[in-house]
Specification:
Elements: H1 2-9, E1 12-19, E2 24-29, E3 35-40, H2 41-44, H3 54-71, E4 75-81, H4 92-102, E5 106-112
Parallel strand pairs: 1-4, 4-5
Antiparallel strand pairs: 1-2, 2-3
Helix pairs in contact: 3-4
Length: 132
């Protein structure tokens, strides 16, 4: 009986983190995919060079933590995505996850959803390639 009550109190959400070297965007959704809250680096700072900063990513997470506590969320599935073809995510992803752990939330899973290019458009240079 007590375990059923604890299950009802625990609420899980999905945190989508999109990080590039120019910006950080975080989108908090419930498990069905409905957006609860969305914040970006531009909402925390007005200087373009700071939008991808790890410190700004921590400020974004603080706003998401407030909304998550209001909605009774206790755990997250984290999906990290960067620009297509980039080898690793931007600087804000790691600090965002550390901030979530410090706030006491459970992180159930961390996945990398970065898209990979498959061939892409035709390269310039024509049929015989670039000649000197």
């Amino acid at each position: 009986m007590e375990s059923e009550i604890k299950r009802k109190k625990e609420r899980i959400a999905i945190l989508n983190i999109y990080t590039t070297f120019n910006n950080t965007i975080m989108n908090l959704t419930d498990l069905t995919g409905n957006t609860l809250v969305k914040f970006s680096g531009g909402q925390s700072t007005k200087q373009d060079r700071l939008k991808a900063n790890p410190t700004i990513a921590m400020f974004i997470v603080q706003k998401i933590i407030e909304e998550a506590k209001d909605n009774g969320i206790t755990g997250f599935y984290v999906r990290i995505r960067s620009r297509t073809g980039q080898a690793n995510p931007g600087p804000g992803a790691h600090s965002a996850i550390k901030s979530l752990l410090r706030a006491g939330f459970k992180i159930l899973n961390i996945t990398d959803n970065t898209k990979t290019p498959r061939g892409g458009p035709k390269k310039k240079g024509g049929r015989r390639g670039r000649r000197p």
